[in-house]
């Protein structure tokens, strides 16, 4: 019995034009794949860099070398021997500082200062206007006359803060404010200290401290010498205070 033979079926030949179209379509497909791959790679790199930057930002406060402050030269609220020391650099004309004083500082005082867990310190960084210095000189005069009265005056200056671009912190305004508060101080001495710039050397020392510390904006906050990245983020402040307290307890 003879074996049957299979017939070979010839495939239709592509014309040159069809080949060219196929090659062009293949090239387009390769190009699309390359573009998509490149975009995906760029996105991955961008996301990676963003996450790395976010991680660095969130941990900067806990890894930076702490500043060795001389706390005895600063206005203090709370016990001197409190384990955690919180330092604010501020300007009495700074709107953000007024917001910090009205919103964040009361929480710090209630949760930590009043519980003897921390002490709060203030450093003058007067740079916005000439009357920034005037307000600082007035506050320093009050501080040297009565340290408890200072913090009442401190809060009142911010609560009655004028426009940032206007010169509102005049000697008359500041003395009148102290009188309205009925502070237990010598008001004539307050005016004299402002006009004579009695505590200008202390003000300059504060400003120089800001420069040496690398502070470029207000408010700036430090917890046991370590800068707080977000001074309006109470959760971050809480976390740094906890870390600082644990570090002190472990010593």
TrEMBL record:
SUPFAM superfamilies, alphabetized: Thioredoxin-like
Domain of life where this protein originates: Bacteria
One GO MF term: oxidoreductase activity
Domain Thioredoxin-like fold as annotated: residue spans: 76-242
Transmembrane spans: 33-53
Coiled-coil region(s): none
Keywords on record: Disulfide bond, Membrane, Oxidoreductase, Redox-active center, Signal, Transmembrane, Transmembrane helix
Keyword Transmembrane part of the UniProt annotation: yes
Keyword Disulfide bond: yes
Region described as Disordered: spans on this chain: 1-24
Family the entry assigns: Belongs to the thioredoxin family. DsbA subfamily.
Protein name as catalogued: Disulfide dehydrogenase
Origin species: Paenibacillus borealis
């Amino acid at each position: 019995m003879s074996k049957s033979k299979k017939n070979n079926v010839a495939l239709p030949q592509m014309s040159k034009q069809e080949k060219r179209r196929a090659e062009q379509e293949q090239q387009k497909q390769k190009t699309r794949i390359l573009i998509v791959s490149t975009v995906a790679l760029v996105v991955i790199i961008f996301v990676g860099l963003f996450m790395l930057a976010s991680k660095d930002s969130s941990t900067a406060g806990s890894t930076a070398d702490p500043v060795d402050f001389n706390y005895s030269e600063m206005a203090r609220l709370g016990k001197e021997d409190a384990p955690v020391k919180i330092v604010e650099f501020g300007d009495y004309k700074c709107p953000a500082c007024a917001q910090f004083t009205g919103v964040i500082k009361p929480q710090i005082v209630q949760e930590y200062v009043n519980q003897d867990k921390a002490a709060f310190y203030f450093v003058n960084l007067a740079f916005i206007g000439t009357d920034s210095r005037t307000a600082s000189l007035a506050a320093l005069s009050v501080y040297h006359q009565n340290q408890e009265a200072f913090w009442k005056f401190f809060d009142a200056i911010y609560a009655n803060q004028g426009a940032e671009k206007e010169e509102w912190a005049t000697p008359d305004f500041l003395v009148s404010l102290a009188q309205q508060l009925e502070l237990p101080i010598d008001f004539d001495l307050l005016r004299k200290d402002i006009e004579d710039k009695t505590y200008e050397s202390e003000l300059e020392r504060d400003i120089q401290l800001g420069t040496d510390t690398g502070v470029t904006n207000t408010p700036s906050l430090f917890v046991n010498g370590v800068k707080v990245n977000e001074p309006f983020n109470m959760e971050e402040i809480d976390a740094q205070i906890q870390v600082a307290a644990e570090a002190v307890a472990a010593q």
